[in-house]
Design goal:
Length: about 220
């Protein structure tokens, strides 16, 4: 599982990185809001509320606008963070500093599990996105009524993107869902499959690349 740690205080950030790595997480660090928005959010984001360049709430809102990756806010004091507002911004949970590391790990696993269940609930038997129809049970794709021949992996990838039309799927989400949970090979594989699907759909606009993050299906016709 990949965790993006957004924290400007190195004492806390280093501790989190070491502890989470020891627990088997793959940790990416960002030390300010701009860096956080440039980073791959991975499977869970730990987001400090007080960042040097941006309000953590704005960072939260912007990450949520691009991806469904769960976000846990790290706040200095309980009263500093309005829980309801936080949830409205799209945060999944929050932890008050100083926190128990063991509790934080439990929260990370809990939000990741809930987000995984959401993906499964999203499964539909037929997905219609504009002129694109994905028949999940029959493993067929129709574009303006004509069948598009896809390999099984291409089909799974298109279905995964289509299940969340407006949300960006990160490369790590795609690798976990379409390939294998433990598959940490080159992410170029994803790009190569996206390129082939675009070619088969006859228009690259169907799948938009979001720089540094991942891909999104766009219903443009
Ligand atoms: Ca801070």
């Amino acid at each position: 599982m990949r965790v993006l740690v957004v924290e400007d205080d190195d004492a806390i950030g280093d501790g989190l990185e070491d502890g989470l790595t020891e627990q088997g997480f793959v940790v990416t660090r960002a030390r300010n809001g701009a860096e956080a928005l440039r980073s791959d959010p991975g499977d869970v984001v730990l987001l400090d509320l007080g960042l040097p360049d941006m309000d953590g709430r704005d960072v939260c809102r912007q990450i949520r606008a691009r991806t469904s990756t769960p976000i846990i806010m790290l706040t200095a004091r309980a009263e500093e963070f309005d829980r309801v507002l936080g949830l409205e911004l799209g945060a999944d949970d929050y932890v008050t500093k100083p926190f128990s590391f063991r509790e934080l790990v439990a929260r990370i696993r809990a939000v990741a599990r809930r987000s995984q269940q959401r993906v499964e609930v999203d499964d539909e038997s037929t997905i219609v996105r504009g002129s694109l129809i994905i028949d999940v049970r029959a493993h067929r794709v129709l574009l303006r009524g004509s069948e598009v021949k896809l390999t099984p992996k291409e089909f799974d990838l298109l279905r995964f993107l289509a299940a969340a039309t407006d949300a960006v799927r990160t490369r790590s989400e795609i690798l976990d869902e379409v390939w294998d949970v433990n598959w940490y090979g080159p992410t170029k594989t994803v790009d190569a499959h996206v390129a082939t699907i675009r070619q088969k759909l006859g228009d690259s606009r169907w799948i938009e690349a979001v720089r540094g993050v991942g891909f999104r299906l766009v219903e443009f016709e």
